[in-house]
Amino acid sequence: MQNSQLENARELPPLPAPQTATEPDVGASLEEVSAVNHDDNGAVIQLGLDDGYAYTKLALADGRLVAIPSRGRIGQAGITWMDAAQQQIFEYDTEGSRYAVGQIDGESTCYDGYPISGLHRAIVQHAFQEAKLAGHSVHVVSGLPVSSFYFKDGQKREQAISLKCDSLKIAVQPVSTGGLYATQRLPVAVAFHEVIPEALAAWYDQVIRQRADGVALDARLLEASMAIVDIGGRTTDYVVVQNQGIVHRSSGSLTRGLLDVQAQVAREIQKRFELETLGEQTLAAAMSFGSVRLHGRAHDVSGLVKAAQHELVVQIHAETRRQLGMGAELDTVIFVGGGSAALAEQLADWFPQQRIAEHPGFANARGMLKYLQYVCEEPASRN
């Protein structure tokens, strides 16, 4: 990355100017900014929504972190639950179509229209329900991959951003599927929605620090030249921030992620055991435990998983070198996303100044919540 690339940087929404703090690595307090932007009305719940192609993750202002698989399909579940406490598949209606979400073999989410689809809304609504938000209105910040949010020259893709903002506000109604104890669940309504680049959300998570005595900026990270590498389900995103500006020549997306590993493992298992199909939950178990149970027996497939992971790592490493070079001018490189946790050993020595974020799978969701709380122009009225 060269300093001349700052000519292609785009400024971020302004953060409060750092000031001297009692702790050496923390800047100015953001409590006053929070007080200006937010009243004490608790009717609406704030949350960060990292609505990925593999997992949908929520970060809530009360400190909870919630994750569900982004797994669903169009149509009814076809199951009546005798005991609602045992229900694992749930149904939702939106725009005249019904979707089943939960522990099922779902449809692929790896297509460009997923973030504005009914399937997406049903999965997000299910995440809201799992977070016990039924009957509430929510204010949400979510994301798009860097290349879906920006053109390469740094101009925003306004149409794509607007479509996603509007789509999540479309009503989704939970459906009672019957059963002896089934009850009707109340929907969660999205009253406010803003979209930011996904990896950039992790930058906000790094520089905005929440402490026991309030919230502050980390002055050292704010001034640092920082690269975020976000390894997700379908995409790997890169964002370089220098002097609070995004350097677009060193930022972008690679359409590769952990779902490519899953797809390759599925193909190899089907080939080895001569299977026509492989259920999504069986595949998930193979990815988690390195074994698959077929015809009543457990079979070791850990070698297939490692080979697929290695292929992905080679692709991501090559793209990382294209985007960031050797990283000599970067102060820090931070890996985030579920892929950074799953591939931690393979990523260990790419840069001397690198580290993996704490709970990297939730870094974007945490940053989206912080952006909502302390940066964006949220409506004063929460209704």
What does this structure look like?
The protein is an alpha+beta fold and 383 residues long. Helix content is 30%, strand content 26%. Strands 1, 13, 14, 15, 16, 19 and 20 form a 7-stranded mixed sheet that branches. The protein has a 5-stranded mixed sheet with strand order 4-3-2-8-10. It has a 4-stranded antiparallel sheet with strand order 5-7-6-9, covered by helices on one side. A hairpin with a 2-residue loop joins strand 11 and strand 12.
Topology (SSEs and partners):
Elements: E1 9-11, H1 31-37, E2 44-51, E3 55-60, E4 65-69, E5 72-74, E6 89-94, E7 97-102, H2 118-130, E8 137-144, H3 146-149, H4 158-167, E9 173-175, E10 189-197, H5 198-207, E11 208-211, E12 214-217, H6 219-223, E13 226-231, E14 236-242, E15 245-247, E16 252-254, H7 258-273, H8 280-289, E17 291-294, E18 297-300, H9 302-324, E19 332-336, H10 338-342, E20 354-356, H11 363-374
Helix pairs in contact: 5-11, 7-9
